[in-house]
Structures are given as C-alpha cells and as structure tokens.
Amino acid sequence: MRFSFLFLMIVIWSCVGRSPESPPNNGQPAVTDSVKKSSVQIYQIEIFKELNGFGYSITKEGARIIYQPTIPGVSGMVGFNDSLQAISVARLVISKMQNGVFPPSILSTELDSLKVTIPISSR
Length: 123
Fold this sequence. Notes:
The structure is a single chain. With 123 residues, the chain is α+β, with helices and mostly antiparallel strands. It has a domain at 41-115. The chain is built from four helices and three strands; from the N terminus they run H-H-E-E-E-H-H. The protein has a three-stranded antiparallel sheet with strand order 1-2-3, covered by helices on one side. A hairpin with a 2-residue loop joins strand 1 (43-50) and strand 2 (53-60).
C-alpha cells in the first residue's frame, strides 16, 4: 500500500506544470495565448435613427464608450443624413482609438473627406 502511494505521488509530481501537448521549451521563454489576445480589441458599432437624423454608438468588449447622436464637431443637434455617413465616421473614430487617440476628435476636413453632408444652417 505504501509503495502504491509513493508511486502515485511520483507520477503526479512528474506531470505537474506540463500539459501533454506542450513541447519542452529548451530553456526558451514560452509565449502564452494571453499575451497575443491582450492586443485584440473588439469594437461594435450600432447605428440608430432619431428625430434629427442618424447617430452611432460604439461599444468595446460590451461596454458603451461613445454615444454620438449628432455629427461630431457640428454645432446644434444635427444628425447624419443617412446611416452610411454615420458608420463611416464611427469607423474613423474606432481607427483613431486603435491608434491611441482618445478622445477621438473629428475635424471638419475629415468630415469633408468622408462626404458627410452638413446642413447650411449648421455651418
């Protein structure tokens, strides 16, 4: 009985810290999946319609980080004319955040390059 307990302890000790599919590291540091996954950021865009036009909401890993019911950088409560304009600006905002820009301000020249139409009364 004592021999089987000792044998069982040796087997358990030899298996601790190694999974059967992991090769020996030969003295090299191991790269883990958590390092690779930590750089992945998942953003979602939701487009919505309100009385003044379209807007967008951006969530990151389930938490809303931006709610934009109006065209950014335009005075007044002016929404986007259509959902395509809203989504193109939301994608630009995400691109800026992925490059470390926060808050991701939108310039009027960027709105022009995205072909966002702004009512004359708001200019």
